[in-house]
Design a protein that fits this description.
Layout: E1 2-7, H1 11-28, E2 32-37, H2 40-45, E3 53-57, H3 65-75, E4 80-85, H4 88-91, E5 101-104, H5 109-127, E6 130-135, E7 138-143, E8 147-153, E9 156-161, E10 164-169, H6 172-179, E11 184-186, E12 191-194, E13 198-202, E14 205-208, E15 211-214, H7 217-234
Parallel strand pairs: 1-2, 1-3, 3-4, 4-5
Antiparallel strand pairs: 6-7, 8-9, 8-12, 9-10, 11-12, 13-14, 14-15
């Protein structure tokens, strides 16, 4: 299921976008769950990274779309944001919040469906990487994109992820071999960090999903190079 939020204060466009999503669902066989917000403050008030795609109007009465997107990005680096606007100069600022695309008003179904397909393809690609982690009493399957970082504690690994913390027997060396080629980097001997979830570097720490993870002195230069390269490739 694709979870989509429409953030739009004009009823005409709410109805139009909802209709387009239902038509897309019928045409392409996608299961889509739709949630509507009438302003930017509505979606940001209790945001819990619960959506795959956000269709965001830029000009709204209380909190504009750009401000709402900035707030959302503080909590969620994964959600696909697509701006809806009738003014291209606003849409161009989308790179500041890693927006995938923008849709110009008036919205045509053909253009909308093309851009939505692109967004869904991005989600599918992200979801394709999964790992199986042995845990007490069984195994769990984790999407790599959902893992914030892996922590080594004694003879165990703790996978800090969107679905919670999962404790698994294992060594940092083994998990490093599995994950370093798909966007992870060692911060120190205890942390293997998903670069996708690094919001910045502060006081020799990587800020990852609100946590400050210490980067060791020997690893600092290499970590910064890997992070800079990763961010460059994401543009």
């Amino acid at each position: 299921m694709i979870r989509i939020a429409i953030v739009e204060d004009e009823e005409m466009y709410v109805q139009q976008l909802t209709g387009y999503l239902k038509e897309y669902q019928k045409t392409y066989g996608e299961e889509i769950d739709i949630t509507v917000y009438r302003d930017g403050d509505g979606i940001t008030a209790k945001y819990k990274a619960q959506f795959d795609i956000i269709l965001m109007d830029i000009q709204m009465r209380f909190m504009d779309g750009m401000s709402a997107a900035e707030e959302i990005r503080k909590q969620d680096s994964e959600v696909v944001i697509m701006f809806i606007t009738n003014m291209t100069q606003y849409a161009i600022r989308g790179y500041e919040v890693d927006a995938l695309d923008y849709i110009l008003k008036p919205v045509s179904y053909f253009a909308f469906s093309q851009k939505l397909s692109r967004a869904i393809a991005r989600i599918r690609k992200r979801e394709s990487h999964q790992i199986t982690v042995p845990v007490k009493g069984g195994i769990v399957r984790l999407k790599v994109a959902d893992i914030y970082y892996v922590e080594s504690v004694g003879h165990n690994l703790i996978y800090h992820s969107a679905s919670g913390n999962h404790i698994s027997p294992g060594t940092m060396k083994s998990v490093e071999e599995e994950l370093t080629n798909i966007g992870f980097s060692r911060g120190n001997k205890c942390y293997l960090i998903n670069l996708e979830h690094v919001d910045g570097i502060k006081d020799k720490c990587a800020i990852v999903h609100g946590e400050a993870l210490q980067i060791s002195r020997p690893r600092m230069n290499a970590f910064m190079q890997e992070l800079t390269k990763y961010w460059g490739e994401r543009k």
